[in-house]
């Protein structure tokens, strides 16, 4: 529901699960994962979505389609499937639709991790025109930070659930409480050294074990950097191929001009100089979108590493003198 520039999400439902074939092979599992990733924009799920919204409207539930949701592990959600799904929703339904990302790894630590994203208007226009070449990106000053817009998110219980929680009766205590005894003088007060300290030290915070999520995120960060390096190598190969073809075209044009000059001296008709367009074919420039998505994913992992390493770094600095070898006198 869109109310006063605030997008309210009150209900959600999953798409039908993709059935696995009888022969479970590596290629079949990849096919299933690809079909599951493309489920939000498939035609069959679109029909199923409309039927579910119709049923929700019949039971007086908010029945406006405002987006879709997906799960991720350690922030691994920035890919082409996510971009295509969100582009489909913003183009076909409404430009205000959002994508909710539920990070299951961070939620397993005890705090719910939900984030809302939307494609920027500049990216919607560039994706529609499919202009992700170096020249177009330089003219528009488009950066990988401008692909997604993270929206502020506020989570609260519904009024019906809040009313239900207030109706739950509380169990009365079975133990009888005695009123506290008021001393007559200061000498009758109990000694303070027997009272527990309100700031009792928690020894679990002194452990030097590295957070397992930090090591997993670091591995994912290295994989994303390798993917980005691969995309960079592909673009460099294109530049080398383009330079070779342009050198061939320049040599051919110079040769053709020399031939035409000699034919003019012999009073012959000159040969066409634009024939190189038929003889030579320039390589097609690869799209830079995949590289931009890898850069955005690297930034996402780097932020997570910064958050996970904050607590470990302070402990390491505290015990640095014990970890380093003793200096020789």
Structural notes for this entry:
- The chain has 329 residues and is α+β, with helices and mostly antiparallel strands.
- Helices cover 49% and strands 8% of the residues.
- The chain contains 11 helices and 6 strands.
- The protein has helices at 26-37, 43-58, 80-92, 104-107, 121-129, 134-140, 159-167, 212-265, 276-279, 289-318, 320-323; strands at residues 2-3, 6-7, 67-72, 98-103, 114-119, 148-151.
- The strands form 2 sheets. Strands 3-4-5-6 form a 4-stranded mixed β-sheet. The chain has a two-stranded antiparallel sheet with strand order 1-2.
- A hairpin with a 2-residue loop joins strand 1 (2-3) and strand 2.
- The longest helix has 54 residues, at 212-265.
- The radius of gyration is 32 Å and the shape is elongated.
- The model has no long low-confidence stretch (mean pLDDT 79).
Q: Which structural class is indicated by helix and strand composition?
A: alpha+beta
Shape, per Cα inertia axes: elongated
How many beta-strand segments?
6
Average pLDDT, rounded to a whole number, is 79
Element string (H = helix, E = strand): EEHHEHEHEHHEHHHHH
